[in-house]
Design brief:
The chain has 21 helices and 21 strands. It is α/β, with parallel strands linked by helices and 553 residues long. The radius of gyration is 26 Å and the shape is elongated.
Length: 553
């Protein structure tokens, strides 16, 4: 897993490197700026003669920018440096970096200086944003805001030019310095960054909140962000991550073990997800891979039960039984002849009745894991049954969809549950569980997951772009796989079946969630590659689970 830093954690890492490891601050800054310059020079080659504008603030992000300017000039770039403020206001390591830059520095403090900047931006091939980085507190204001808006205007004008007016810059992936990290965490070639000027941000695009991923004022729209030592939260949280473009991580000379020490949030990688899955031995049988019980479905929602059941089988469970309302049992069975089904007493609404409680408990006793909720309905009697099952069944359980609705206002059921519980809410469901608004959940997705998991001792994935996985210990994992085509009915039911299957196969709760969420997203990515995002349906995700499990061929 890759570490994901808050601004405070990054400052603490720098402080430890200086105080405990004896790495001087100027050396860290030099490593950061040199690494960023190497990435930009390599991706924009040939650099000689290219016009480069570096806009710097007075803090350490500006210091990184001064190093980038010096290094790009040494490689033949025609570099202009602008400073928002006065040279005498630059302090500490940034002042030392500024002192090593031998070219002119244009100080921005009035309208004529800003006009000169606009003129240089209009002919630039590369604009480097070194204004704020992770140092933002509140929205960008004053001259900083004006510079941000000037950079964005220059980029927007370039994007609006007719095709062929400006040369395209094509970036090529390389592991020489940092390297592009794809959604799966592996090296891959970068796409064209678009017409000049290319906008590159250092650490995070200036104007975004480094921790919350919020945009409270003007913010740089970058084609590429070169970040130092590890990801910053804003690079993985919406809406800020949409402004980052390609993200490249460069080392700054701190040993990897120290970089990872004490970090509570990580980015999931493919190897992490696959590490939870045990290779199948020759001398095994269906019982070796567990029996999953799915309690799901109601009148009009039999498809949800079938999707979860079939996803369980596609994810390697040896046996899957779907317990559903009696009238829906033939429908669910018709969706997949490999699924075993159990007809349960039903309510007048066509949902599972309370009278099914003992039979379901008996089925669960013969199973290794349970998944509850897809299409089970919001009928009051069924909701009460779900609460009883969540509290009483002594098997690890995934709770989703209508099953989550049963817990709203009854979270004490989770506190006394007889075995581990894994919840898979989307933001709306999470808001109802937590008694707040969707906006509040989305404004602090990481905090919402951590608080809920620690308070109720559960494992949970908050679904959405870059789903967040949490557990009772407070550690958080961000998932990089998936695509907008997966915003379709039934996709969550597939995830429920996958997570349930991994529990039935004997995975620990965290491992089951990590493997399910990552591989579910990968299956969606494979489906989108085959069919496109528009028109993608849950069945397409289901069909690509085997390929996701198989991995690279």
């Amino acid at each position: 897993m890759l570490p994901v830093f808050t601004a405070a954690e990054m400052r603490a890492l720098d402080a430890r490197a200086i105080a405990s490891l004896g790495i001087p601050g100027p050396r860290l800054m030099e490593a950061a700026g040199s690494g960023a310059a190497a990435v930009l020079a390599r991706r924009l080659a040939p650099l000689r003669g290219r016009r480069v504008v570096v806009v710097c603030g007075k803090g350490n992000n500006g210091g990184d920018g001064f190093v980038v300017a010096r290094r790009l000039a040494a490689r033949g770039g025609r570099v202009r440096v602008y400073l928002v403020g006065r040279r005498g206001e630059v302090r500490g390591d940034a002042a030392e970096a500024l002192g090593r830059w031998r070219g002119p520095v244009a100080e921005i403090g009035d309208a004529p200086a800003l006009a000169r900047l606009e003129s240089d931006l209009s002919v630039a091939d590369l604009i480097v944003d070194a204004l704020l980085g992770t140092g933002l507190t509140g929205p960008a204001r004053g001259p900083i805001a004006e510079v941000i808006e000037a950079v964005n205007r220059a980029s927007a004008r370039a994007a609006a030019r007719p095709s062929g007016v400006a040369p395209e810059r094509t970036a090529r992936g390389s592991a020489e310095v940092g390297g592009r990290v794809s959604a799966s965490g592996a090296e891959r070639p970068a796409e064209a960054w678009g017409p000049s000027p290319v906008v590159a941000a250092l650490d995070v695009p200036s104007g975004v909140d480094a921790d919350r991923g919020a945009i409270d004022g003007p913010a740089i729209r970058a084609h590429v962000t070169v970040t130092f030592a590890g990801y910053k939260r804003a690079l993985l949280l919406h809406p800020a991550c949409a402004l980052a473009g390609e993200v490249v991580v460069v080392p700054i000379g701190i040993p990897d073990a120290e970089v990872r020490a004490g970090i509570g949030t990580h980015l999931l990688e493919e190897g992490d997800a696959r590490a939870h899955l045990v290779r199948r031995e020759t001398d095994t049988h269906k019982g070796t891979y567990g029996h999953l019980l799915v309690v799901a479905g109601s009148r009009g929602k039999a498809g949800a039960a079938a999707l979860a059941g079939r996803a369980g089988l596609r994810s390697g469970a040896g046996l899957v039984t779907v317990a559903t309302a009696a009238s829906q049992q033939p429908v669910v069975a018709g969706f997949g002849m490999e699924i075993m089904t159990e007809a349960c007493p039903e309510t007048a609404h066509g949902s599972i009745a309370a009278a099914a409680r003992a039979a379901i408990a008996e089925l669960a006793a013969r199973s290794d894991a349970v998944a509850v909720g897809p299409g089970v309905s919001l009928a009051e009697e069924t909701q009460a049954l779900v609460r009883a099952l969540v509290g009483e069944l002594a098997r690890p359980m995934v709770v989703d969809a209508d099953g989550l609705g049963a817990l709203v206002g009854h979270l004490d059921v989770l506190d006394g549950a007889a075995a581990p519980r894994l919840l898979t809410p989307h933001p709306g469901e999470m808001a109802r569980l937590a008694g707040t608004s969707v906006a509040a959940i989305q404004a602090d997705r990481l905090g919402a997951v951590r608080d809920f998991c620690m308070r109720h001792r559960v494992w949970l994935v908050l679904k959405g772009a870059h789903s967040v996985i949490g557990g009772p210990d407070g550690a958080l994992v961000i998932n990089p796989t998936g695509n907008p085509g997966m915003a379709t009915a039934g996709a969550g039911d597939v995830l429920t079946g996958m997570a349930g299957a991994f529990l039935a196969r004997g995975l620990a709760p965290r491992g089951a969630l990590e493997a399910a969420v990552y591989l579910h997203g990968m299956a969606g990515d494979l489906a989108a590659r085959a069919r496109g995002e528009e028109g993608l349906i849950a069945g397409d995700i289901l069909d690509h689970i085997p390929a996701a499990l198989r991995g690279p061929s």
